[in-house]
User: Fold these one by one.
Assistant:
Number 1:
Amino acid sequence: MSKKIFGLVALLVIVSMLLVSMGPAPVAAQGKKKITLGAVQMVAFHEWFRTIEMGMKAAADEMGADLLVANAKGQVDTEASMVENFIARGVNAIMISALDSKASVAALKKATDAGIKLINYNTTINSPIMETFIGVDNTELGAQAGRWVADYVAKNMGGKAKIALLTIPKYEVGKQRREGFMAEISKNPDIKVVAEQEGESPEQGTNVLETIMQGNPDLDLVWAANEGGLVGALTASKGSKIKVVGTDMSLQVAKALLEPGTNLLAVSTQNPYQEGYAAADAAIKLVSGEAVQSDADKSVAGGLTVKNRQLIPLEMYTADNKAAVEAYLAKYKVLEEGGAVKQ
């Protein structure tokens, strides 16, 4: 064998060894075309959805996929337009927290008819095209808060309390949260719900609770079913003796839990970062023809069943566990700096 041929063989052996040592390429980078994911956010500037996006981007980056994000701005017609735009751009999968279980279906069916994989997260749609759902059990999310309130009242308020609810009844998840909360506190007949009003945004939550407080000067406690209403409840109740419990964490809520003498006691919450990560991970695997992690139970809201269902574990933050709250703030401080949100 000539030196020239010997040298070429040696080079090929070295290259082969290097390729083996590097391991296989990320699943999204295998094949001829890079996987592109489209995410349609309900309202992209809300912190909850920004945290969802952080999780999606982490998974996409880790697995070598591209991520495009669109903002439906809370409007079903805008949502449909964003879905159709993703179809035209040829994305491989669409991840969406649909605004309406019925009205959102038409545009999403166009996507599945075009061969695009559909991943529903957070909210469900009333259609068999929904085969994969990533989210939480919102009934249990409300129940978690209800159990905490019932226990607090038993241990700190002599087993009796007059409470008010700030709910989000126009959303299916809001109805589920209320159902879970009420199931738990109703076990104690001495916990009386003296008022219940819709309170989705901070402004609405503030105004509604101020009115409730005027009509119920002996109010003991408030539960807010979402982060916006919770922020409003904190504003309205500041300086009073009213205790506040909420659902859905945020940076502002976390800071309120750390304030000296805060009247915010506890927050039951989801993990939107993990929810976003799991949604993107499922999307990439579906496009690649791989199995998706799925719970044994396939049921979702409304008595529907899906092919793939993954429920993300819930979390609970309390004012008496400051270390956990500080860890939350440290993890998500990037959101205060802009958070790389795409509009």
Number 2:
Amino acid sequence: MEVKKEWLDWLASSDTGTSSKTMFSAITGTPISERPDVPGDIADIGRCVRMLRKCPDLRDKLHMVIDKHKEWMPFIDCWKELEKLYDECRIFEALLPAEQNKMKKRKHFTSPNEQAWNLMEQLNVASRYLRGMRIQNDHHSWKNQPPTSY
């Protein structure tokens, strides 16, 4: 695959992280020094989103991430929703505190940050399962082996 200037510009920037580099590597075949990983929070999603916006030709190849890293499937399957939530979080955070507080007082209001957190939790559980991990004893204990009983 031909290396493009915008790819090199992005790689040389400070707006990279392990998950965005994992995504980039899976699509372009460029090796990375970090251990591949999935996004852990909306900040990680943000770095991936900004990478795709700087390198738009990579967007059509998102399926390649799943081909190399099956644990990315939950994230890629709802990528449009993740991008939308990321944008909503940025808009919400840009509001003045008084405006944020006004919104928070609305009945049944859930901030975009909370929505993103909840979705990321679900996606990370699905991702761990795809990696072969299973919950042991409580929701915070994962092992790389199937449980002895269900």
